[in-house]
């Protein structure tokens, strides 16, 4: 019986389910039942409290992922390494800023984009933290968990196909089309 339990517990699909359920459940509980009541009672302006809550929630999520898989897999967690953090973060921010600026510039030149005003409210900070949070959660679960486990289980080629299929959830985004479908696959 012990061998059967170990076989089920360490089956790759079980690892994926356990990783998502444990980490995401802990994140949701901490965010909704601890952080939101605490910070919304201390800070009245939700546009200031929300980014703080997102940052702390993200830290809770990363720590839970780190310790869960350090204990579960009994391995060093290399996917959360901070060895080249600043170089990779600067490169990612630069590439993202450049590609978004290029897209907006092209839309502006063709008359599909116009600037109607500049806002100085805290909304941009809230929006920024939501986007950072969403990207990190997606990368952590898709690439850090699903693709990593599938690669160890099925090999690199099938893991890439599975990773592409997982990314197809973006096809339901507003204004998604055939061109964006190919971008999701890439």
Structural features, described:
With 186 residues, the chain is mainly alpha-helical. α3 (46-72) packs parallel to α5 (123-154) and α5 runs antiparallel to α6 (156-167). The radius of gyration is 20 Å and the shape is globular. It contains 7 helices and no strands. The model has no long low-confidence stretch (mean pLDDT 87).
- Helix content class: over 70%
Strand content: under 5%
Low-confidence stretches: none
What composes the largest sheet?
none
Q: Would you list the SSEs in sequence order as H and E?
A: HHHHHHH
Radius of gyration equals 20 Å
Distance between the termini: 44 Å
Structural class: mainly alpha
What is the average of the pLDDT values?
87
Count of strand segments: 0
Shape: globular
Number of helical elements:
7
SSE topology:
Layout: H1 2-9, H2 12-42, H3 46-72, H4 85-109, H5 123-154, H6 156-167, H7 178-185
Relevant terms:
single chain, about 190 residues, about 75% helix
Short note summarizing the structure:
77% of the residues lie in helices and 0% in strands.
């Amino acid at each position: 019986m012990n061998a059967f339990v170990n076989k089920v517990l360490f089956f790759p699909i079980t690892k994926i389910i356990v990783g998502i359920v444990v980490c995401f459940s802990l994140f949701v509980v901490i965010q909704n039942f601890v952080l939101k009541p605490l910070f919304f009672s201390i800070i009245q302006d939700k546009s200031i409290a929300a980014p703080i809550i997102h940052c702390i929630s993200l830290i809770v999520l990363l720590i839970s992922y780190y310790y869960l898989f350090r204990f579960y897999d009994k391995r060093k967690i290399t996917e959360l390494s901070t060895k080249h953090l600043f170089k990779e973060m600067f490169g990612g921010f630069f590439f993202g800023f450049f590609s978004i600026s290029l897209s907006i510039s092209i839309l502006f030149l063709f008359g599909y984009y116009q600037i109607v005003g500049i806002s100085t409210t805290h909304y941009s900070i809230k929006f920024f933290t939501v986007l950072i949070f969403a990207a990190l959660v997606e990368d952590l679960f898709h690439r850090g968990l699903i693709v990593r486990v599938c690669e160890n289980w099925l090999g690199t080629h099938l893991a890439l196909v599975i990773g592409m299929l997982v990314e197809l959830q973006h096809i339901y985004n507003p204004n998604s089309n055939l061109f964006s479908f190919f971008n999701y696959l890439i």
